[in-house]
Specification:
Blueprint (H helix, E strand, L loop, with lengths): L1 H48 L9 H10 L5 H10 L10 E2 L14 E2 L9 E3 L14 E3 H16 L5 E4 L4 H15 L1 H7 L13 E5 L13 H9 L5 E5 L4 H4 L4 E7 L2 H10 L5 H9 L7
Parallel strand pairs: 1-2
Antiparallel strand pairs: 3-4, 5-6, 6-8, 7-8
Helix pairs in contact: 2-3, 3-10, 5-6
Length: 294
């Protein structure tokens, strides 16, 4: 009887050992699979890391965005995701970095608060502005002086460029947006009118222009003044903010009349070396991580 019990006990022990070995093997196989998966994930990040503006915290977003946009190169993927395009316009909003001063970026992902009013706003001389519109003639001092020189030189060249609308505060923009939304619906309003806090006009660095004193900004690109601006705006520190063919980046329809002051250094660099980029793209490639301030 004792011998039989010992045999049973031995069989049970052997059985338990076999079970333990099987479980140990399964665990090791699973761990190996996890390790391979982690290695594969890390390898998937490698092409994106070559981009100068790569952000480790956005790694998984780069991969997901790439899966849907394989026509783009890795650097474009990184820049688009850093802008926020993988979320969609107005779906992931943070505050603009106002410490960037003249290089501040305001768009459908970055906003200014209700109380933000730029310092050193000055009124543009009426000589360089369309008739009327006195309440939207302000620009930051540096931008204002640059625009007056630009306008003066354009007038001398018989390709006049006049300001039509410059600084607009948060509440004024809110009124404009709601009016557009009520008249045309939200989709159309969002394509050509910024929501409150998201307008570049609130920075005091943007200006809409015309080629005559009556105001013709909506047809500005049909004038010789527009072609003069294409070739000369950068010399005064201005860039075309919403170019044709870049609506998927900016979220706005092409605006031949909307110019943004970024200073001569950046404007000339964009004109000479990066004419294919919007300010959004340029900002995330060269300004954000480098700690540029102007």
């Amino acid at each position: 009887m004792i011998i039989i019990n010992n045999k049973k006990r031995l069989i049970i022990i052997i059985f338990l050992i076999l079970i333990a070995l099987i479980l140990f093997s399964i665990t090791k196989i699973y761990e190996r699979k996890l390790s391979n998966k982690e290695i594969q994930t890390i390898n998937n990040y490698e092409p994106f890391k070559k981009a100068k503006n790569f952000k480790q915290e956005n790694s998984e977003r780069y991969i997901r965005y790439y899966e849907k946009n394989k026509n783009l190169d890795y650097e474009e993927i990184v820049t688009h995701v850093n802008i926020g395009l993988d979320y969609g316009f107005y779906n992931y909003i943070t505050n603009s970095d106002i410490s960037k001063n003249n290089l501040i970026l305001v768009n459908k992902f970055l906003k200014l608060n209700k109380n933000y009013v730029p310092k050193n706003l000055e009124e543009i001389n009426s000589k360089y502005f369309i008739n009327g519109n006195k309440n939207v003639r302000l620009l930051k001092k540096e931008a204002k002086e640059a625009f007056e020189k630009l306008s003066n030189d354009s007038i001398k060249n018989n390709t006049p460029v006049y300001g039509q609308s410059a600084y607009r505060g948060y509440e004024k923009q809110e009124i404009l947006y709601n009016k557009a939304k009520n008249e045309y619906g939200q989709s159309i309003a969002d394509s050509d009118t910024a929501r409150e806090g998201h307008s570049e006009h609130q920075t005091g660095l943007s200006i809409d222009v015309s080629s005559n004193k009556q105001g013709n900004m909506l047809t500005f690109d049909r004038t010789s003044s527009f072609y003069w601006m294409q070739n000369n705006a950068h010399k005064y520190g201005f860039i075309l903010r919403y170019p044709k063919g870049k609506e998927h980046i900016t979220g706005y329809t092409y605006e031949s009349w909307h110019y943004r002051y970024v200073g001569k250094k950046i404007a000339k660099d964009m004109y000479n070396n990066y004419s294919n980029l919007t300010f959004d793209e340029y900002y995330y490639k060269f300004i954000e991580k480098k700690g540029y301030k102007s």
